Amino acid sequence: MAYADEEDTPLAAAAAAAVYVRRGLKGTFAKPKQTRIITIANQKGGVGKTTSAVNLAASMALAGLNVLVIDLDPQGNASTAFGIDHYEDASGSFDVLLDGEAIADMMSAAEGFDSLWVLPATLDLAGADIELISTVAEAERPFLLKAALADFLADHEMDYVFIDCPPSLGMLTINALAAVKEVLIPIQCEFYALEGVQQLLRTIEFAKERLNPDLEVSTILLTMYNSTTNLSASVVEEVRGYFGKKVLETVIPRSIYVAEAPSFGQSVMTYDPGSTGAVAYLAAAREITERKQKG
């Protein structure tokens, strides 16, 4: 199992990893046969949901894949991590959902990347559920993002689209579930790791039955692993026993650099590419691409 160590790697190994990420990574990830659209969801806060969306996307973009991150969380943390403004009057995912704007007109290029774009969140998203209920016909509400993505992908070549959901199971998350075939659930290696996951799974099953028969939980990513505690090992065992092969072999360790990076408007992949957190997210991203390639 690819458990990363808690502490930083030795200096030489960290330097080698950093050079690889910055110079040698491009072209080493296989491109999918068609665009993979993945919703990253967990209504429990603090599990590494946005962090995972940001760093998986960054890893794939550094490998030369075309990636779009859609930020549906009113807090806009994914937008912040890529240095994208999401002040009150900014444009973004709210305009796409509520005003019918095109994704291509609302997205921004992520700073420091050649092939990564972000559809940012704005504070307006906090009231999106109410506005959707009051202004959009009931039959159309769950499919606004799906329709916008279909229009966008008809004219733009993307390898991966990651949708970062808010920590709730409202209409924004329903739109994210209706628009994809795959759901990735981050689960932290701490007490009550599976708390709330059952409710999320029920919501996913509801969406599958009523809105999107192709929907499935394709990936479970274990985060905040602490190699010095028996608790983390127990959680890993419990989650693997419950979800089986859906769980990635790579486990994301606790890392101060992963936590610090967004405050500098960066992913950990560019903030400290030699850190254990960056190496782990790179391994997880590669595992996601290879798993699908193997069928």
Q: What features would you describe in this structure?
A:
The protein has one domain: 3-Layer(aba) Sandwich (Rossmann fold). Helices cover 43% and strands 12% of the residues. It is built from 13 helices and 7 strands. A 7-stranded mixed β-sheet has the order 3-4-2-5-1-6-7, sandwiched between helices. Helix 2 packs across helix 13. It is globular, with a radius of gyration of 18 Å. The two termini are 21 Å apart.
The CATH homology group name:
P-loop containing nucleotide triphosphate hydrolases
CATH topology, by name, is Rossmann fold
Overall, the morphology is globular
The major β-sheet equals:
7 strands, mixed
**Beta-strand segment tally:** 7
Strand content: 5-15%
User: What is the CA–CA distance across the termini?
Assistant: 21 Å
Low-confidence stretches: 3-7
CATH architecture descriptor name: 3-Layer(aba) Sandwich
Fold blueprint:
Blueprint: H1 11-24, E1 36-40, H2 49-62, E2 67-71, H3 77-81, H4 93-99, H5 103-106, E3 108-109, E4 116-119, H6 128-135, H7 144-155, E5 160-164, H8 171-178, E6 182-188, H9 197-210, E7 216-223, H10 230-243, H11 256-260, H12 268-271, H13 276-293
Parallel strand pairs: 1-5, 1-6, 2-4, 2-5, 6-7
Antiparallel strand pairs: 3-4
Summarize the structure.
With 295 residues, the protein is of the alpha/beta class. It is 43% helix and 12% strand. It has one domain: Rossmann fold, CATH 3.40.50.
